[in-house]
Design a protein that fits this description.
By secondary structure, the chain is of the alpha+beta class. It has one domain. It contains three helices and two strands. It has a two-stranded antiparallel sheet. The chain is globular. It comes from Cupriavidus lacunae. The chain crosses the membrane at residues 6-22, 43-61. This is DUF2905 domain-containing protein. Keywords: Membrane, Transmembrane, Transmembrane helix.
């Protein structure tokens, strides 16, 4: 369970850092992604994008 928690946490961090590039192709704006502004700074939690990219990585891993 701890391994999955770490994996999801790491995925959210990586997607948050790569969000400006991923928004050009539509990721980061899915219905499950959370955006909010706090103290003048915008925070993005791309939960739906993380799940989508994890599923794509799983399918690619199964094919290889």
């Amino acid at each position: 369970m701890l391994r999955w928690t770490f994996t999801i946490f790491f995925s959210v961090i990586v997607l948050s850092a790569a969000l400006p590039w991923l928004q050009k192709i539509g990721l980061g704006r899915l219905p499950g992604d959370v955006r909010f502004r706090l103290f003048g700074r915008e925070f993005v939690l791309p939960f739906a994008s993380t799940i989508l990219l994890s599923m794509v990585a799983l399918v690619i891993g199964k094919l290889l």
